[in-house]
DNA sequence: GTGGATGAG
DNA sequence: CGCTCATCCAC
């Protein structure tokens, strides 16, 4: 009999009574057990000192160089070689350099007023620049793609810019059946048919699969090699070992192809995978077997558990005046429920190594997209807001169009501008985002400028200390196949003139006083019959001779038609980014600068 | 629709 | 630590 830990025998043993479930042929052969699958295996894989690694690779440096990434005066990433010098994220750049004179400090890329794309400038100033995490997002996506490619039947959930959960249950199941064909069929003489338990599992070779966490009594008996002669292994352990094997291969692949080292945790569910991923870093992986769970969790400060790191964890600690998981095991579910209501059940289960949350790819990847900037020097003149808006707009344009490479039909329902005035809480304004094909800086900035006007109203002076610009309601727009016809009838669309009744949604550039002077303003937009949006020329395109403007408007209409075509095409085929037809060639380069650029990236 | 709270890193 | 980003929910 294993006594999981000393001192607290009986009552808590039951807390972990699901660690060795009997596994039957039904479990193995049925396909949709989901989170209750006794052979479930989940991994959390995260990149080591990710931002630092991105910069190191961008600069083609040796992995051994001590490098940190700085954001203004503080550090946001410290490479492992730099940590050897005792540098931590809390340090100021100066202290870090004191600890390591050879330290390479790279400032994150920034958007700079007047520049369309983020870059690495020499004159970085928090008053005029805004940090860009773009490089890291792109690199992150590469890694995620490799997970998905390697595991066509696995589920991959991006958890943050440098972490992903991977559900290995299916890939492992496939391997189990392939490697051990004798369990793929219920034996004729099985006593309970498909509900008979599986035969004893094969011996497991844990060598090279990572660090295997062991229960205390085995662990203290020393000799990791003991586990190889462990007669107590289960089929779940086999499953873990296969996942570890797959995980290791993928990690090696990522390392050789992209250069990043990663650390992974492999266990029966998400929270345990996440927990043991940090057991040993960098460039390593850790496996938590079910039988080791009680000993592993018992002494653990529960505030290290995902979602218990904040107020909830504090409240728990305070309420019961305790700090470890073991301490909390004596608290009944009812008791927790009476004080923590909603959260009680999952807290209770987490403490017992249970986590029923699924690994699920986020369908939209995200529901909103936000770019923000705290202003060291507050905006006083409302007119000074525009420069920041353009910078935020540039970031959003880049990110949205980037996301569209893999998701061409991604569309934001609305755009929101937040501004905080001094100490006051922030105020916001939002509007429906216009349905234009090319989401350029200008399109976004124009929409945002309007919101800005609403927010600052007509105040002569303001005191704005923070600005945030966001897309919300980001979704894949679904469109019918027949709408391709819509493209071919674009001519009709073009004929459609501005004289429409009344609009229920705001046009991007409404003919009103927000726009300066130009007498053409009212003639520089059209309303598409298809999407019922008003599409307008940029302000700077709306100037010049009437013929010129008319020409540009025609181009715009054509592009808009292209947009519908592209959307439809993307929807009806494989999702690859379609090339707009016969457009740009005959187009003058007058205005394409900010346009083509964004649609087809690179 | 707006703003606050929470949490991750 | 200060900053950046995302989600959820009450009003």
Automatic annotation (TrEMBL):
Keywords: DNA damage, DNA repair, Metal-binding, Nucleus, Transferase, Zinc, Zinc-finger. Pfam families: IMS, IMS_C, POLH-Rev1_HhH. Coiled coil: none annotated. It is found in: Nucleus. One of its GO terms (molecular function) is damaged DNA binding. One of its GO terms (biological process) is response to radiation. GO terms for cellular component: nucleus; replication fork; site of double-strand break. Residues 521-572 form the UBZ3-type domain. Residues 42-309 form the UmuC domain. PANTHER family: DNA POLYMERASE ETA. This is DNA polymerase eta.
């Amino acid at each position: 009999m294993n006594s999981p830990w000393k001192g607290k025998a009986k009552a808590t043993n039951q807390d972990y009574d699901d660690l060795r479930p009997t596994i039957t042929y039904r479990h193995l052969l049925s396909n949709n057990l989901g989170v209750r699958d006794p052979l479930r295996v989940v991994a959390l894989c995260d990149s080591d000192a990710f931002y630092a690694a991105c910069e190191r690779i961008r600069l083609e440096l040796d992995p051994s160089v001590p490098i940190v990434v700085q954001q203004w005066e503080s550090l946001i990433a410290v490479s492992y070689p730099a940590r050897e010098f005792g540098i931590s994220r809390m340090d100021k750049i100066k202290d870090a350099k004191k600890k390591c004179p050879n330290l390479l400090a790279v400032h994150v890329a920034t958007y700079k007023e007047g520049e369309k794309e983020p870059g690495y400038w020499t004159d970085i100033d928090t008053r005029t620049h805004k940090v860009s995490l773009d490089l890291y997002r792109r690199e992150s996506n590469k890694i995620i793609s490799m997970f998905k490619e390697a595991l066509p039947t696995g589920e991959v959930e991006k958890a943050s810019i440098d972490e992903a959960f991977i559900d290995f249950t299916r890939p492992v199941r496939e391997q189990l059946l392939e490697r051990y064909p004798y369990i793929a069929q219920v034996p004729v003489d099985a006593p309970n048919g498909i509900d008979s338990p599986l035969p004893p599992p094969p011996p497991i070779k844990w060598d090279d699969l990572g660090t295997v966490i062991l229960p205390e009594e085995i662990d203290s008996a020393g000799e990791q090699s003991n586990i190889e002669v462990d007669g107590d292994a289960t089929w779940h352990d086999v499953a873990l070992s296969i996942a570890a094997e797959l995980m290791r291969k993928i990690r090696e692949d990522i390392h050789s192809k992209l250069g990043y080292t990663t650390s992974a945790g492999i266990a029966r569910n998400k929270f345990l995978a996440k927990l043991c991923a940090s057991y040993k870093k960098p460039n390593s992986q850790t496996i938590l077997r079910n039988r080791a769970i009680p000993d592993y969790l018992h002494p653990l400060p529960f505030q290290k558990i995902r979602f218990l790191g904040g107020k909830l964890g504090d409240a728990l600690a305070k309420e019961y005046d305790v700090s470890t998981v073991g301490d909390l095991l004596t608290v009944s579910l009812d008791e927790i429920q009476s004080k923590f209501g909603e959260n009680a059940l999952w807290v209770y289960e987490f403490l017992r190594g249970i986590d029923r949350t699924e690994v699920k790819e986020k369908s939209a990847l995200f529901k909103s997209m936000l770019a923000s900037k705290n202003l060291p020097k507050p905006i006083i003149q409302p007119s000074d807001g525009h420069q920041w808006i353009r910078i935020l707009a540039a970031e959003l344009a880049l990110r949205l169009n980037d996301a569209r490479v893999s998701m061409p039909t991604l569309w934001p329902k609305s755009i929101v501008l937040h501004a905080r005035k001094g100490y006051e809480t922030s105020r916001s304004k939002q509007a429906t985002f216009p349905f234009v094909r090319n989401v350029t800086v200008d399109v976004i900035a124009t929409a945002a400028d309007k919101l800005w006007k609403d927010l600052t109203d007509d105040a002569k002076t303001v005191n704005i200390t923070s600005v945030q610009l966001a897309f919300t309601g980001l979704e894949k727009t679904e469109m019918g196949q027949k709408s391709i016809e819509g493209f071919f009838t674009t001519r009709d669309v073009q004929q459609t003139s501005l004289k429409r009744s009344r609009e229920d949604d705001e046009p991007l550039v409404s003919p009103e006083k927000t726009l300066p002077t130009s007498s053409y303003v009212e003639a520089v937009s059209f309303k598409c019959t298809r999407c019922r949006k008003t599409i307008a020329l940029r302000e700077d395109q709306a100037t010049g001779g009437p013929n010129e403007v008319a020409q540009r408007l025609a181009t715009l209409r054509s592009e808009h038609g292209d947009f519908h075509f592209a959307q439809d095409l993307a929807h009806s085929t494989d999702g690859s980014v379609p090339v707009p037809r016969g457009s740009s060639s005959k187009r003058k380069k007058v205005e394409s600068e900010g346009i083509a650029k964004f649609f087809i990236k690179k």
